Amino acid sequence: MEPKVKLISYTPDALALLIYTKNTRLRGGETMASIAAWPEEKLLEHLAYMRDTIKSSWEFVDFVFEIKGVDRAFTHQLVRTRHGSYAQQSQRTVDMRDANYTDIGRNGLYDLAVHDSLDTYKRLVNQGVPIQDARGILPTCIETEIIAKFNLRTLHEMAQVRLCTRAQGLYQAVFKLIKAAVVEVYPWTEDFIKVACAWNGVCIFPRYEECPIQQFTKKATPEELATIETVWKNTEHVAVPRAVGGKTM
Question: What is the pTM of this model?
Answer without folding.
Answer: 0.88
